[in-house]
Amino acid sequence: MPPAIPRATYRLQLSADFDFAKAADIIPYLQALGITHLYASPFMKARHGSTHGYDIVDHTRLNPELGGEKGFERLSRALKAHDLGLILDFVPNHVGVHFADNPRWLDVLEWGEASPYAVSFDIDWEQLPYRARGGVLIPILGSAYGEALEAGEIELRYDPDEGSFSCWYFEHRLPIAPERYGEILRVIVKHAEADNSESGRRMLELGSRYRGLRHPNRKEAPAFKAELRGIEGSADIIARGVSAYGAGPGRTAQTLALHHLLERQHYKLGHWRLASSDINYRRFFDINTLAGLRVEDAGTFEAIHRLVKRLVAEDKLQGIRLDHIDGLRDPAQYCQRLRRLIREAQGKHTAPLYVVIEKILGEGEQVPAFSGVHGTTGYEWMNAITQVLIEANGLRSLDEIWRQISNTPPRLDPVLKQAKRRVLETLLTSEFIVLSRLLARIANGHYSTRDYSADSLRQALELYILHFPVYRTYITVPGPTAHDRALIDRTIELARADWFAADDGIFDFLRDTITMDLLKPGRPAHSALRVRRFALKLQQFTGPVMAKSLEDTGFYRYHRLLALNEVGGNPASNGLSIPAFHAMMSARNEQWPHGMTATATHDTKRGEDARARLVALTEIADEWAAIVGRWKVLNAQHLFITGEMRAPSVTAEYMVYQSLLGAWPVTGHDPTFLERFQAYALKAAREGKQETSWLNPNAAYEAGLRDFIARVLDPSISGEFLSALDAVAQRLALLGALNSLSQLSLKATLPGVPDFYQGTELWDFSLVDPDNRRPVNFAAREELLAMIERPDWGGLAEKWRSGEVKFAWTRYLLKLRNELADVFTHGDYRPLDVTGRDRNHVIAFARRRGRDAAITVAARSFAPFTQDGRTWPRAEQFEGSIDLRGLRLEGAQARSGEISLSSLFVHFPAAVLKARSEAPTKRIRQRASA
Q1: pTM for the complete prediction?
Q2: Which of 315-319, 367-371, 733-737 has the lowest mean pLDDT?
Q3: How far is CA 566 from CA 48, 83, 311, 768, in A?
Q4: Cα gap 760→610, rounded to integer Å
Q5: Which residues contact 354 (CB under 8 A, 6 or more apart)?
């Protein structure tokens, strides 16, 4: 059986091209590598052709494109045969909508609030302006509604197998409310001139039988549809008569008929750009085709977890990764319900199920203590490893370079604030309007607060969001925790300080609404329902605002050092000292020893080894300004300049140079590189939302950007630049390789569960998604695994560019983790003292459990040992020793007391060795998370 707490996980991105069967084929390889748990991307039924699985349309079914039940059963057998567990990336926050593949969403469109599934979606039914009845905005049109209608792009169709009517806009199905069927039948029969036929009379009689509003209702509709379906000749009459609704050029009457029919539905069709200002259902961030789920509703929770419960009960699922936990209304309640469901599924054989949450933490923020959760997916530890490997002194030079290039101070806060303002004004305007209106209604509900104008409240709320420093609070109906209250108070004071109008208590009112203190006994009576709705809904909003502003905007504007622009990271970080790093890991070992430690995921902005290369820029920072200056001169001829537009912009050009160094193929020509890099640069430019954007693409700028990249990467016209680029890239590649080996050593031995993203056992220089989802050559990796059973470390170090040294080191570390499973799963964490000249270049610690132990020694800042990246370091260059007091190394290096760095760093400057503790360790107290 696989261990309850994984020793190492391996993330696979499943798709139609890499399905359950192909995943089953590589299970023997993963076991031989040392992996204990397969960590799979979402595998519930997703939208057709999905490459990621997050657009689930049916949580109750396995994805047929991955092989369905039969394919999953094969994978499950392979996992059991090799004692591997399965962790599912589960998506409780949202589902795929629109198109024609989500039956629950289609039911909501057909029946509106009367649908039993309406409660599952977070829809503000009364928010649509200028409309007599409630409805949900459907922003799917590629042009204005009137243009699409008059062009005949919206069609009314009849499904003879269902007996139902729907409008279609290309691949999008829009069910017609059955209460309109009688009207439709009258128009169609008349237009088909079938009034006097037997079939026509029966159709008219059927339509007239259901009179009054809301008829046929939900109970009557199945019989109505069945009878219509059963009328002989009805399909032919409808086929002839449906042209009465055939909108198109020159068909004014038919266009009006279809328009009037659409206006009487439970939805309103609109241009896709309307979503930013008018959408009235909660989305996943700003993605219109992903609608938020109300998992706080017990029926919805039960429905979407039915398959999970079954898989747990059948012992086919050993862990769950919870996607976007911050999108839920009440994550604490959700985790309690999930824990109860798991226990029910397990029955008498109750055992801890491994559960981690996708949670992005702000600097200094603590992981919320949710029931049954073992920790996060590890973004915070990925960034801690990056920061401790950085040469902090080099950041000062990079600060000055960025100051000169951007003509702004190297501070992130103003960039983030501007990005938040842009997001509120464009991408998430509709959600912000809903909250602002709700706040105004609360204020207007009592005479003591009714003079706070809607506009003043909107501005005050905007300032609060602009200054809110993390993703969200976790307020529940009883009120905020002391931590959340302090966070809200600090944010209110920052917002108040930014306010130039008269205060008159408006920020006190806002604070008391957010904390729900407004509902305390003795306070003026306000609507408890609205206050709670506002406070809880605001929490679901601040997360998407932060994500879109920082990760998807700020990271593409602030280019001081791209290695720091990573999910969960702080681009303005000043690095992390070794003592601070040890303190962080000691605390982690006591609080969250079993969360994941990631260095690459499907969401990271670049490959883990590309990031390690860019870390090395801090080691050659004094040269970097001159290097960039020369490159700008060489490439000035390739810029596209017209009027005030420059493509790429000055800051984007700087981003291009860093990104090229991170991803540059130093082992030879890659024919796909130009196209991949152009796609990356275009995405980066649109995400930055300055010269161009997804909402409003600037074709001229984008063409100039593509041409610039094509020209600077063309050897026939940019040979001097490419020669200079390759020379720097080779140096950074060597320094980056050494950083990568240290990064890997830390990930595999620190407290936590090391997670390996698919393919990263060899060098990973990928760019942002979708580049990081390219196919992995597992056959080559299987062959390599067979060749390195007894690795020649010296030979591997000599050919480090191949990545085989990383592969062999990964295998060695995972083998050690399995041999010392108790040490790495439950052992303590003890920093080791380093003495000598190079002590500040070395991170050393021990993991101990009883008398078993392991020591990790990883170097950093390698420029002094490599001629600034020109030669592989030699062991004798490192001066210093590790204090092994209380520990004795095993094997050929058996000794206690001290050990020199030169004896550890024989082939490369990282070492992880078995040891024995001379005195048994005391069991440390750890958070109970199961």
Answers
A1: 0.95
A2: 367-371
A3: 30, 34, 34, 10
A4: 11
A5: 4, 5, 6, 37, 85, 87, 318, 319, 320, 374, 594
